[in-house]
User: Which sequence fits this backbone?
């Protein structure tokens, strides 16, 4: 099993409410977390959620078309 990438995938599968903070690029389908994500998500029990999301994913912003910086560059 591949390490790293799948861990993050499994994590958001286990906690689907975190998906709203995950940005997936329409071009390369790279996933990253929304840099606007707060330090703590929701109730006390989820306090570690943001920590793990940041651990498993890189910050990723998407442009208005849903493309990451890399893909947006290539499209120009
Ligand atoms: Zn991309």
Assistant:
């Amino acid at each position: 099993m591949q390490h790293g990438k799948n861990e993050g995938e499994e994590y958001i599968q286990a906690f689907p409410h975190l998906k709203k903070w995950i940005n997936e690029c329409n071009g390369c389908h790279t996933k990253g977390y929304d840099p606007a994500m707060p330090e703590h998500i929701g109730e006390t029990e989820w306090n570690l959620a943001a920590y793990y999301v940041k651990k498993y994913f890189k910050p990723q912003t998407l442009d208005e078309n849903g493309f990451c910086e890399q893909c947006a560059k290539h499209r120009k």
